[in-house]
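tool_call predict_complex ligand=adenosine-5'-triphosphate
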Amino acid sequence: MAEPGLMEKIVSLSKRRGFIFPGSEIYGGLAGTFDYGPMGVLLKENIQRLWLTLFRDTRDDMYSVDAAILMNPKVWESSGHIAGFSDPLVECGNPKCKRRFRADDGTVELIAADDGEVKWVCPHCGWENVHAKVRQFNMMFKTHAGAMEDESAVVYLRPETAGGIFVNYKNVMDSLHPRLPFGIAQIGKAFRNEIAPREFIFRLRELTQMEVEYFVKPTEWETAFEAWRLTMHAYADALGLPKDAVHELEVPAEDRAHYSMRTVDFEFDYPFGRKELWGLAYRTDFDLSAHQNGSGVSLEYLDEETKQKFIPHVIEPSLGVDRTLLAVLASAYREDELGGETRTYLALSPRIAPVKAMVSPLLKNKPELVAKAREVYAALKKEVPQIAWDDNGNIGKRYRRQDEIGTPFCLTIDFDTLGEKPERKDTVTLRDRDSGNQERLSIAEAIARVKEAAG
Ligand code: ATP
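tool_result ok
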């Protein structure tokens, strides 16, 4: 369901309305980085909040950690990332070009030669590369900890948040003594030196992940896998993603990571095609066994009933915040005609909309209207903090601005509110974003309506 032109519109609206800006923009940007602006931060927080509610707070078996991004490099040695967290890469042999491309994403067409080498044509300069080699490019960012810049000081920016969970498994066990099954949730930044960052915030070099490592007895993995699969669908629904745009892909054994016994990718119909949104994997006891071997510290679990010791198995729902936010924007973007004019709006679910309602006096230059509107604003803000005040320009323009950031309601205070028509005293108009329809309600009713929708 690729929609040409839609991505450009989303990128443009994101910039115009303060959702997402190119990283370091005044210096010409930095590939693979984007900055969230005022509206983007609110939307991102709401997406994360909803995840915390569904994946942690409505359950009794979940804990949190917030681990450091820099970790002892042995963590990544044990997890296999130093040896194997890589993408295949080819480099153009033209001395004037030297551009590098990912070899497995369709950017270049590789023709295998008999000698094990490949032939390909550089899409940038047209150079014919013969006797070329594909090499593995490790995607972890390297830096140095401390004043020495030699090999002994090398540390990595974590390529996934999961590592910070596994190394804290024992700390959580020792401090809170949970019984299996239980899980640890974490939201945080991860860094991947992607060869070709692209599609706006879909493929970034600095991203945010929301991950759960759920520890189970080996015999219980299927039940847990199924339960998390359903939770992921419930989350997609709560975000307002259309059911027919979210697809499950049962990843075949030959495409799975070596430690995974089952992986389901959740794919989404982005404007540029169907691509991975989230992943759900059964990682067996690979991670804890690897960290037990690597650290020499026992990560075994003692089953109080059977007195048996074993390494717990793991189910991992892994979700990228940025890809989620892009799916939300792509699903919510609408263009229609209202009052004879075309308009753009975001049909965001009120639960995740950055601003739940805008309060506005009909006219800016009437102090009595402004004072009453300020009163309504203060009363609503006590109930629903995420609201906006706007008295700039005419009312139609104010509505359009709110439509573009997806504000579900606008409350307007006019002379009737002040009692010009006595039967309408202390009523306001409540405008619905999607239909543009306005209703006359008491101030209390309007506040209750916004509060209920905001959840
Ligand atoms: P892809 O195959 O698209 O590179 P992946 O399979 O490597 O993704 P995982 O390692 O499973 O991704 O990471 C878990 C989740 O983190 C993904 O489902 C996605 O939501 C998110 N994610 C991974 N890489 C990126 C990236 N470069 N930019 C933004 N989000 C990402």
